[in-house]
Amino acid sequence: MFMATVDSSIVIISMPAIFRGIHLDPFAAGNISYLLWMIMGYLLVTAVLVVTLGRLGDIVGRVRIYNLGFVVFTLASVALSFDPAHGGAGAMWLICWRIVQAVGGSMLMANSAAIITDAFPAEQRGMALGINQISALSGQFVGLVLGGLLSAWDWRAVFWVNLPFGILGTVWAYRSLRETSARRQSRIDWWGNLTFAVGLGLLLVSITYGIQPYGGHTMGWLSPKVLTGLISGVVLLIVFVIVETRVAQPMFRLALFRSRAFAAGNAASLLAAVARGGLQFMLIIWLQGIWLPLHGYDFDDAPLWAGIFLLPLTAGFLIAGPLCGWLSDRYGVRAFTTGGLLVFSLSFVGLLLLPITFSYWAFALLIMCNGIGSGMFSAPNTSAIMSSVPATDRGAASGMRSTFQNSGMSLSIGVFFSLLIVGLADRLPSALDSGLRAQGVPPDVAAHAASLPPVSTVFSAFLGVNPVQTLLGPTGVLDTLPAHNRAVLTGKEFFPHLISAPFHHGLVIVFATAAGMGLLAATASLLRGGPATRAVAAEAKPPQVRAGSRRSS
Q1: Three-state DSSP state, 264
Q2: Model-level pTM?
Q3: In the chain, what are the helix, strand and coil shares in percent, each to the nearest 5?
Q4: Which of the residue ranges 109-123, 238-252, 259-273, 524-538 has the most confident prediction, judged by mean pLDDT?
Q5: How far apart are CA 277 and CA 39, in angstroms?
Q6: Measured distance CA(501)–CA(536) in Å, rounded
Q7: Which of 33, 113, 202, 288 makes an SS bond possible with 398, Cβ 3.0 to 4.6 Å?
Q8: Would you tell me how many other CB atoms lie within 10 Å of the CB of residue 224?
Q9: What is the pLDDT of residues 326-343, one digit of tens each?
Q10: Is residue 302 helix, strand or coil?
């Protein structure tokens, strides 16, 4: 799980090195799509496939699908590291193999929680799933640091790092894991799988294109392609619900949502994922585009240091996850899940109140609280969800849980970027226009730079590139300016000071929305009721492992 989720974030921080390695300018016309698909493609595929692959695990064996996932993931990592092309063709090679890698990651995600639930009795399940969940969540943030370190050496090393873990994991899984769940003979629900995959896929693809510029608009939400995709996706998901109520052997038993523990746990998971999913992007842009340059760091070095300065967030996960998973086994889940989400929400309020040039220790404390709150919630919540379903449905239930989590993260990126860009669009153009003119940039060039979609400026900071170079480099104006003005424009302080007020305005909107989502998630968690029904827990009780036999754990 750690390896699968590291790969959802390791590429984010490695983007500058990857684009340099394949000789592609991400800011050239039409190339932003490559950037977004490198980020979103992995999340999109895992969100769409985990339910189907979880259900397939229920039918043919969870361990079999899990082991195959290791093989697919490792082979895709090899292919990614041997990209033979440059430019757009090189980017498409990476995107396609990232999608294949995501298929392998989906096999791991969909079945790992179900295998652990089978292997551990109810009184130990919270601790076991806590380790699993924190491995997954911490992987998202450890990937940021690994990406910065490895890409500074060679961008291909970002994919090589998977090989030893993938090979060892594949050999270990095939030698050690044994099926303990009873397989249920069942037909594959083709219509359910098709309507779910296509419907959710259309929604998430439309979100990916919605945050790109369209025509004269700063974003693409009014594009006919985006609107058609969103409407079609919603319609197909409604058809999916109808299909699942009509077929004899559905892909996912919607009756499971009648369980308050299952329904409330997944609702809280979705809302928390929406609140958390875009957080790392906002923090990275904040650090790389403003805070680090103002504290003397070069734009080129900012991606690595952003990952390092976000380590307290990972530390919070690692501290709280297993501990609260173990405590929830003894004292119940509701106090930990609801309490964790309240801590999580309050950390966003604290971030909202920080000045744009904050003291690092205050920032570190707040993001650690955010990680602690997420850790308090995630492990007990997963244990409660998985303990609330019959053993025969655990694969599909684990997949649905992962779908809510991954879909929430994809939705979060679209929502957070949109809110941030709306905030920037209100104030950035006038600040940029006046700032450039003050340094001698001709009025027509300054006006043109100020009229460009804010998404280009945001992605410049995100990729560790001096945004002024991105805006003015193609015009040739920088070479005509006096040396002093040129030095000011391309220095470490001009752009951060220029964007600070507009960015903070957008950040307030984003963090206020995240805090609200966190409180809604806490409310959903509070409504889950008491412990999972004992009838279900009894039905889900795993078979005893004979002494001396190899355990599935």
Answers
A1: helix
A2: 0.76
A3: 80, 0, 20
A4: 259-273
A5: 12
A6: 54
A7: 113
A8: 9
A9: 788 788 888 889 999 999
A10: helix
